[in-house]
């Protein structure tokens, strides 16, 4: 891929058969399969076109280069929830942990019944799961797991809880059985986007689409493109068909800016997540640890546990709830890891635009039961970590004391305090749910926006509710299913 993917300004207004807005997993798969079917496709991305290797994974540089607003975005509520969005070619696949799940069958059954989604059983999706898994090389770790990951697994087994290694979309180097295997994340810039470009798809990076409207069966997209001198040049693109794949926040924001609002941006879901930094007497962390691979699913779908990226910058951010202990990270980061408890939750959020602001206002309301579930999940996660001899636990609750003994679990209130609890998530979805239930759904069972011709959505906003697992597997399979339906090949 070229660095800028510049299309000369003389070519605007650009006319294409199909415009795909957003190059994350949904957009990349959609653009790839359309291009491979011989269609004239333009893939549009707001962020920069950067190789996966442009920066160290999970570094400050990556947050600056590839995250929206450097990773500093929040859903407002009591408490507020920090969330992250990728903004680069490849979207979230370039920055996430690479952990892969298929959509649980009971979740698919719920979506099919409540939202009236056609052709969404497990057997319907298996061919799409399998094709995507092959394309991004989903596999298990071919050797030793990181010590921080094994701590979680061992604690769960000791307590009699279900724990599993989660596969990842990675390609591993030659195996050294004495070390944790090193590998390369098989993100969209490593897989579907090169395939799309080889098939003739055009890529336009650094381009933000602000609005779209349809006249005489042609969609007009207006926005701006950042050129070499960083000036924003206004652009216009005309397309017969548009696929919007900007993610669960930006997709409803774009549609609402364009006056398309029916069931759009009213039902945002996420996995609210609370974290604990655990400090041990022995080393569990290293600079090349990468992504821990174990998750505890004993209490799923209500809540699940995992181990997060625990690099020194992430530990430094996490310890800000305990400012008097910041030196502990500097001195003992090798003995520390970040663990999380995520809930599916009952709450929901909204996405709304604010005049004169580029970014939408995101609100999210947690219910009393959500706060209770988060508290129970935090207590059980702390119990697990003490089971494997954690020395000190730092839950993400400001103005509280670290936990040093299992008896301290009683200090965690039954409902987490809304003004002190710091929540985050890396999973957002469900803001434009799919299905034939016109009271709830923004699009039909295959992503076509209700009431509009040749306008589709293909990203995480389609997922009807929180799936309770890392969502990229669901997003990829459903995007593949939907684009094949569009092509008449399902």
UniProtKB/TrEMBL annotation:
Domain Glucose-methanol-choline oxidoreductase N-terminal: 67-272
Domain of life: Bacteria
InterPro entries recorded: FAD/NAD-bd_sf (IPR036188), GMC_OxRdtase_N (IPR000172), GMC_OxRtase_C (IPR007867)
The keyword Zinc belongs to this UniProt entry's keyword annotation: no
Domain Glucose-methanol-choline oxidoreductase C-terminal: 362-479
Record flagged with keyword Flavoprotein: yes
Signal peptide (from-to): none
Protein name in UniProt: Oxidoreductase
